[in-house]
Amino acid sequence: MTAIFAAEGFWKAFGRRDVLRNGSVWGEAGAVTVLLGRNGSGKSTLFRCALGFVRPDAGVVLFDGKRSVRPRLAALAAGGLFFLPDRDLLADRFTVGQHFAAVAHRFPGAEVAGPVERWELGPLLDRRPGALSGGEQRRAEIAVIEARNPRVLIADEPFRGIAPVDADRVADRLRALARSGCAVVVSGHETRILLDLADQVVWMTSGATHALGSPAAARVHHQFRREYLFGDRG
């Protein structure tokens, strides 16, 4: 497969501390790429550099055949990329229903009714995100993503802070998005669910990334097993 999105060769130092040292990650249409690494290894910084939140020292983004050394999220989003951050996506000044109304207004082809029904959000539409549980918020966020129908989804730790039953449902829907043709890139620490979800695994350690291949190949990679799977991930 050919990557529709790729962040290649990113370097970033904060003062004298090198956070990224040749970090790369990519997304292929119809597949799930999982980015694993300990806390502080540079995963979120790689995403933030690739999406234009942080200015890198080096690196390039390739998206839909176009090359950028100064990526901007607005331009990437206009091309069909959706970013789910590790913090809350939905604004508390709007109700859940108003978020869906905004998506429908901004993107006339958006399909709202299906995701709302699928995630059982009808009783929550008049509530604000701050009044929801962590699992309810994540359900609403994934439903907004599905309504947007992105070509690329980058999700930074989407399983953090939610119950296992909600995590399983989110994993099912991320897999469904990939089956629909979306390129899905996911980070996190929930090793079991992420390896079960992945088509390909990228491991980040000390700011550098290593393409490990399939989950089966990752599980038998000696250094990955020793330093991540059976080590203290933090």
Could you characterize what this model shows?
The protein has 234 residues and is α/β, with parallel strands linked by helices. It folds into 2 domains: 3-80 and 151-229, Rossmann fold, CATH 3.40.50; 89-149, no CATH class. The chain is 35% helix and 28% strand. The chain has 9 helices and 10 strands. The protein has helices at residues 43-50, 73-78, 96-106, 113-118, 134-148, 164-179, 191-197, 215-219, 222-229; strands spanning 3-14, 17-28, 32-36, 58-63, 66-68, 81-84, 152-156, 183-188, 200-205, 208-213. The strands form 2 sheets. The chain has a 6-stranded mixed sheet, sandwiched between helices. Strand 9 and strand 10 (208-213) form a beta hairpin. The mean pLDDT is 93.
SSE arrangement:
Elements: E1 3-14, E2 17-28, E3 32-36, H1 43-50, E4 58-63, E5 66-68, H2 73-78, E6 81-84, H3 96-106, H4 113-118, H5 134-148, E7 152-156, H6 164-179, E8 183-188, H7 191-197, E9 200-205, E10 208-213, H8 215-219, H9 222-229
Parallel strand pairs: 3-8, 3-9, 6-7, 7-8
Antiparallel strand pairs: 1-2, 1-4, 4-5, 9-10
Helix pairs in contact: 3-5, 5-6
How large is the count of helical segments?
9
The CATH class of the largest domain is identified as: Alpha Beta
Task: Kindly report how far apart the N and C termini lie.
Answer: 33 Å
Structural class: alpha/beta
Which band does the percent of strand residues land in?
25-35%
What is the string of helix and strand elements? EEEHEEHEHHHEHEHEEHH
Instruction: Please give the radius of gyration in angstroms.
Output: 17 Å
Annotated CATH topology of the largest domain? Rossmann fold
